[in-house]
């Protein structure tokens, strides 16, 4: 294997493999590949766009949960620290399902934080720590945004014949979000 040498500021030499590449990007983000799924290409393209939007918002919600997990405070610290982490893990599973569905349909899924930040419609949280009531309100708002778009996207996918996308959205995204909303809302009654 061929290697190149990099010199660090401290003078140390590091060897890096040179990975041969005949091409750079193999598929543009905006171009869908046609997979033999017995699904009209326009339907697939529409679902790819919708699922990528839902993916960007789900990644943002997932990251909000981790932020609040790390920054939990107050007398209920331990409860929220665990709850936010549990919800983070559940949202992580959803991001994987959504990304894989985009790829299955022939699209390219969002994969980098700057792309997600540019695409999400969930308002950005401040860098600093917020009190628990504000954290919960922010999470409930993000869930509501996702649920509104997910219901519309599920109906659109079903009416267009994309039952696979409809199933993922209804059985996973909507049901998980509804359950998480219930757990959060119980703390603000």
Automatic annotation (TrEMBL):
Family annotation (InterPro entries): DPS_DNA-bd (IPR002177), Ferritin-like (IPR012347), Ferritin-like_SF (IPR009078), Ferritin_DPS_dom (IPR008331)
CDD domains per record: DPS
GO MF, one annotated term: ferric iron binding
Q: List, for all copies, the residue spans of the domain called Ferritin/DPS.
A: 48-189
A Pfam match: Ferritin
Looking at the record's lineage, which domain of life comes first? Bacteria
Cross-referenced PANTHER family, in alphabetical order?
GENERAL STRESS PROTEIN 20U
So what family is this one in? Belongs to the Dps family.
Q: What is this protein's name? A: DNA starvation/stationary phase protection protein
Species of provenance: Telmatocola sphagniphila
């Amino acid at each position: 294997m061929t290697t190149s040498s990099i010199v660090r500021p401290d003078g140390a030499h590091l060897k890096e493999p040179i990975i041969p590449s005949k091409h750079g990007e193999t598929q543009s983000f905006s171009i869908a590949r046609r997979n033999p799924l017995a699904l009209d290409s326009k339907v697939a393209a529409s679902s790819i766009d919708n699922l990528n939007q839902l993916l960007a918002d789900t990644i943002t919600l997932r990251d909000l949960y981790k932020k609040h997990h790390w920054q939990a405070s107050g007398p209920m610290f331990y409860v929220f620290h665990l709850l936010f982490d549990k919800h983070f893990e559940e949202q992580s599973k959803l991001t994987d399902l959504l990304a894989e569905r985009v790829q299955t349909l022939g699209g390219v899924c969002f994969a980098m934080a700057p792309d997600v930040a540019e695409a999400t419609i969930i308002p950005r949280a401040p860098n600093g720590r917020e009190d628990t009531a504000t954290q919960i309100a922010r999470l409930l708002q993000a869930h509501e945004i996702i649920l509104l778009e997910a219901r519309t996207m599920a109906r659109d996918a079903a009416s267009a014949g994309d039952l696979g996308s409809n199933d993922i959205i209804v059985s996973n995204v909507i049901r998980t979000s509804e359950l998480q909303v219930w757990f959060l809302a119980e703390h603000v009654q």
